[in-house]
Amino acid sequence: MYKNFLRYLISAIFLLGFSVNSNADFKVGFVYVGPTGDHGWTFQHHEGRNAVEAAGIKTTFVESVPEGADAERVIRQLAQSGHDLIFTTSFGYMDPTNKVAKDFPNVKFEHATGYKREHSNVSTYSARFYEGRTLLGHIAGKMTKTNTIGYIASFPIPEVIRGINAMTLAAQKVNPNIKTKIVWVFTWYDPGKEAEAAQALIDQGADIIMQHTDSTAPVQTAEKAGVWSFGQASDMQRFAPKSILTSIIDDWAPYYVERAIAARDGTWNQQDTWHGLKEGMVAMGPYNSAMGADLVKEVEQLQKDLASGKVHSFTGPIYDQKGNILVAEGKVADDGMLAGMSVYVKGVEGDIPK
Amino acid sequence: MSLDISFIGILIGSIMASSVPLILAASGELITERSGVLNLGVEGMMIIGAISGFALMVLTDNLFIAIVGSMLSGVIISLIFGFLTQSLLTNHVATGLALTIFGIGLSAMLGKNFVGIPGKEFPILFSSLRESIPLFGPILFGHSIVLYFAFALPFLTNYFLKKTKLGLVVRAVGDSPVSASNQGINVILVRYCCILYGGAMCGLAGAYLSLIYTPQWIENMTAGRGWIALALVVFATWSPIKVLIGALIFGGITILQLHMQAIGFRIPVQFLSALPYLMTIIVLVVISRDSRKIKLNTPTSLGRIFYKEK
Predict the structure, then answer these.
(1) Quick check: A236 and A39 in contact, CB under 8 A?
(2) A122: which of A15, A72, A256, B262 is 20 to 30 A away, CA to CA?
């Protein structure tokens, strides 16, 4: 009896010793909302993971995890199976991430595009995609002939609404007659439906197609119909070489490597990161020569000014759809307002789904 | 906003194009189910068809081989299902679900090297007539051959089930495999054939997506259409013509609601998004009220394992 007890005790101590001294098998987990081959959002996160792996850190990933009950199960499993740092890379993982973080205080969590950091082991990070949208808006305003910009939107969350607003404001600045038509598809990834939405917008007179969804179907539909489009999250140029004017590219790799090394070396702290063109977390794809040299030069200058902070995407006066002032003249929107943005600016058609 | 005659024609044409994968997959599954086999692997067979078709197109540069190959790949993968459920007598539901999961995983693996390759233009028929006739041009002409086949298929299926001896055999096997077996029908063989046929149609439905509708390979590109096809078969009470109607309503309202958003109708978007599902169910329930007919069409032994004592 005692002998057995002693044996258990010794093995328990051994196991405990191993689990504490786990620096050698430090592991990072990634949870993706789409497949790694989407050539958009998840593809870019996966590139970031590859960079972490290249830095000599072991990683695991789970792809196509639906936002909801499944997400919590997957995150919990990663935490249980000895991952020390877990990146959850979609907005809808916000609550599951915080819930699991509560039960695993020794595991570090990084949630993309969210705003909840309920526990000290949860950090959030996002990119200022809206800076890219400002550039797209400028280009769209100059390139459209029908003055109608078609926008395929996924879910009515601040990140998406911010993109619509930034684009519209920039387009209005160069072309006051611009109209933004929005179609909500309520999915991040459904090539068929995204293509249908693009077609519907083209049929309704849009000659510029912009998307906040993850597949390459909309740009291909635009290519076929002979209208302009923009790549989303990743350089989609080769899918629609004639149609794509430029792409917004998310570059997560430097951030992922930095955070993974910090977590391994014990210097990881909770933080809220929001990087943009300046830090390179948002980058632009090559500009289509069809834009003309003058416009390319103009946009490159704007890109520099956005990066240096000389120009801000949300500079007052900005009005909402009813004409109420949102940002006063001469002021710029602060990060709090940007993070919680839930109204359209003047000039956007339709209502935000509630 | 433009709602002129030519636009309506184009709109109906694109509705037809979007319902093709549903019609093909549901018609195939309908035959499988009429023989008494419930194959929940539609999504998995479709996605395998999508990757095989696309991969063969890239490798051989021949669309005919790609289309035939996608159907063959559907046959091969449904053969696994057939072997498990008919020869090893496993549970239909569990095996079908496994087939879907397997198909999605396998297609992602096979497709790794085919991501990001642009597709090829698929030839369309009568493209000159499409432009010259105002309303009916875009509706009747300028489609791929697969679309014409898909629209003929429900009628052929209907004829097959109701008017041919072989159709009677399939129905007999689905209703009462024991009596059919006593009549000297090889129940297992019939069911095998129906499963393989269903696999071929699902493979073709997948290839339609990756070769014609959105010509490219992306992981998980069927995005749940297999499940909708499965639901269509049930809500259409196993009638091929009603499958066609259901698929058109579903495809139609999906596209119409996107247009309504683009036009700027002030209807809550969530309601619009739910509309395809709601309307399809409502219409199919309304047109299938005759309970006598439902009984006639429902395969009584659906999903039950048949075991012949020797």
Answers:
(1) yes
(2) A15
